[in-house]
Design a protein that fits this description.
Rossmann fold, 6-stranded mixed β-sheet, elongated, alpha/beta, 299 residues, 3-stranded antiparallel β-sheet
């Protein structure tokens, strides 16, 4: 009991920030018309990602085979949630996307795109998500785009990129692309796309920071595609975020016998409270000995 109380107290004391509310908008579009090109994995990707994020205590809005209006309404609802104190947001899209004139567009189901001029009105600008995040002013957001599959319009559009283009994320945000700017991603031969398959595994890794999750995903995808697909990350966050939470782990390694006078004094204090269950005693210990030498724990 005392260890449980102490672990909770320490985790709250040393954590640079606690993200109390987790929100996600997950979209998977695969049922496109023949001229755009059907995709077999995005709906599975969205379903599996939603399940994983709920497991990680996210409140999830999930849309599959969504049209333009559904996506825009979902984005509006999602970004409003991010106004809550200590909220963290995650946006995930799997499906067709394209880079055009320096912007990235997500292609809805039912989009009637015959020329470059139609994209602005028939697709959804990814900037809509990021501007909503920026306006919310929360400290951490993630945008994950598995939308770099082969652009069906690249040959006929003069300004279209073969894949997505690099854009600057809002402050306190990270963007993870399924592949490098201007490149395309594999849809995958199994249940999930190659990128999402490895991302799901990385998210479920205990005690991994978000940057470590993204790096592990990139390494696995690069290896699995024989170096043809390398996920790309942009942006920076100031705090730490863990999908699986992060709890200090007590180590029962004995305290060295040769100690300084200060350590002896601290040891005496520690021994006097070690069997207590009231958190007040441990708060008093941490206040007097902020380095907590008697606790050999790792973050």
């Amino acid at each position: 009991m005392r260890h449980t109380v102490l672990i909770i107290l320490l985790s709250l004391t040393i954590s640079p920030h606690v993200y109390a509310k987790r929100y996600a908008l997950v979209i998977g579009n695969g049922g496109y018309s023949a001229d755009i090109g059907r995709l077999k994995n995005p709906v599975n990707d969205a379903n599996d990602m939603a399940t994983m994020l709920r497991k990680k205590e996210f409140s999830v809005i999930k849309l599959t085979n969504a049209n333009q209006r559904d996506i825009e309404q979902g984005i509006s609802r999602f970004t409003k949630q991010l106004h809550e104190k200590d909220a963290v947001g995650l946006f995930f899209f799997a499906g067709h996307g394209m880079g055009l004139n320096g912007s990235n567009y997500l292609i809805p189901i039912g989009a009637n795109i015959k020329g470059e001029g139609d994209v602005k009105y028939e697709a959804v600008d990814a900037e809509r998500v990021m501007s909503g995040m920026q306006y919310a002013g929360n400290n951490l957001n993630m945008v994950i785009l598995d939308a770099c599959r082969n652009n069906p319009f690249a040959r006929s559009f003069r300004s279209a990129s073969r894949g997505l283009v690099r854009v600057a994320p809002p402050t306190g945000s990270l963007i993870l692309y399924a592949t490098s700017p201007g490149k395309v991603a594999a849809d995958g031969k199994g249940r999930n796309g190659v990128f999402t398959q490895h991302l799901l595994t990385a998210i479920d890794t205990p005690n991994a920071k978000i940057e470590e999750v993204f790096k592990a995903t990139a390494n696995k995808v690069y290896q699995a595609t024989h170096k043809k697909q390398l996920p790309y990350q942009a942006g920076i966050i100031l705090g730490d975020f863990y999908f699986s939470g992060h709890t200090p782990v007590l180590n029962n390694t004995p305290v060295p016998t040769k100690t300084s006078h200060l350590q002896n004094t601290e040891m005496t204090f520690w021994n006097s409270i070690v069997n207590e269950t009231n958190v007040v005693y441990f708060k008093s210990y941490l206040k007097k000995y902020p380095k907590a030498t008697m606790l050999n724990w790792r973050i």
